[in-house]
Amino acid sequence: MALQAPKGTKDLLPEQARFWEYFKKTAYDIFGRYGYAPLETPIFEQTELFVRGIGEATDVVSKEMFQVISGENLKNLLAGQAIKAKSQFSLRPEGTAGVVRAVVQNDLVPQGGAPAKLMYAGQMFRAERPQMGRLRQFRQVGVECLGAEAPSVDAEAIIMLMRFYEAIGIARPSMRLLLNSMGCDACRPAYREEVRSFILDHAQDMCEECLHRAEINPLRAFDCKNPHCAEIMEDAPKITDFLCEECRTHYATVKSYLQLAGIEFIEDTRLVRGLDYYMRTVFEVQVTNGMGAQNAIGGGGRYDKLAEEVGGRPTPGLGFALGFERCVIALEAAGNAFPATDVPSIFLACVDDSVRPVAFELLQALRDAGMTAEMDHQQRSLKSQFKLADKMAARTVCILGPEEVAEGKVKVRNMGTHEEKLIDLEAAAKFLGNFGGMPYNGVMPGIEEALD
RNA sequence: GUGGGUAUAGUUCAGUUGGAUAGAACGCCAGAUUGUGGCUCUGGAGGUCGUCGGUUCGAGCCCGAUUACCCACCCCA
Description:
By secondary structure, this protein is an alpha+beta fold. The chain is 38% helix and 20% strand. The protein has helices at residues 14-33, 47-54, 59-63, 71-78, 96-105, 151-168, 188-201, 208-216, 227-233, 245-260, 306-309, 324-333, 356-368, 382-391, 402-406, 428-435, 447-451; strands spanning 37-38, 44-46, 67-68, 89-91, 116-125, 137-146, 175-181, 266-267, 279-287, 296-302, 317-323, 345-350, 372-375, 394-400, 409-414, 420-424. 37% of the residues are buried. The chain binds one RNA strand through α3, β6, β10, β11 and α12.
């Protein structure tokens, strides 16, 4: 059997790869207006960074990371030797930890300095069982703002996130923005305990999974898909009733900024994020139709303690990540095609094989002059060369036959108007440079005019 | 890690209770007066029916195993 791409990975075929480029560019354009600058971090990091940053008990860290190991260390490991912590690497399962590490390491938020606003785009890796909207290698675009605690940071991030979705063609009504506050070290522990005892009080009615959650991370019981559990959790204590004064004010301010900006949101007290570093503001954007089970196209929140966790000085942070592949699903489900990339091109058709060297030479000249040009490479008939030209949406076809070449000419055909003109081979590149950029149905200029 | 589903042409899929040369659409190739595309018409190429084994006079179809993919749980973007 032919070799295949690894499970859970996908090739981005040209159309999709182009869209990925467009997707990144659009994100960087929009986020750039909000002051975010690009940052590229390694695709693998010390495993310890993710363990400390994301949380040892999270699923992402405890069972979904791809380990990276050099051949030498693998040999040592198989021989029963330990690998130094500094040589234990994992492919990044998300972007935030690496960015925060880079901020700390490069001191991008010096004491008293302005916040560092950073954005990234790239592949993430999680060793999960693949399904719709869930791959082992997937692409995320994300932003991180380090060094500012104000709720305006949270609000503007959410605003630009929604702006981005609309810019790439996901209609506002098809999305819903969920918002919640998870409290902070001051108020969350008490709440957490409250939820834990609530679950234990209803132990006989809850699924086994939730009982397990009660001990590990009680808040995750809010995510349980079991309808019965969900029903019970409806009556569970709500985080919003437990927020401390600071968290309450922060949350209220974020909401008021969003309202000011006309961004609709749904307060969802059950929204809890699975990564340990989140606190205070958390949000998630979902698309409801055609997404399968994985309907979150983006999400994020505040993580004011993460920098310390990674060994830096206390630096508040906020960020989000959005999934490229899931956005593509949302776009396709809504019947939206990728933006067409209309590259006007020129095709050189050869009447017989004798003129191929001449065509080949002209082809390079056209490309050197900045045009997109192509010829047949399969000895096809003239007729099918024209079909090829059509397929690549060539506006112009140059016909080279023994007769033309003998006179040092080339015949230029406007595929829209069927107009044909004989011009000198030597002047062809210049002529086509002027003509090639014309609208499909445009009239060819006179030769003197074009060569002016 | 746990369930369920699918596997037939380049692609999307038909294929009746097991029966002779396995079909369609689209795509591809070639023609339809000379050296010229889109539309139309005609013809043609292309399949070890995922793989291995079993039942049977006979298997694309039934049984078992295996692999791959998909979907769901879980988790998350």
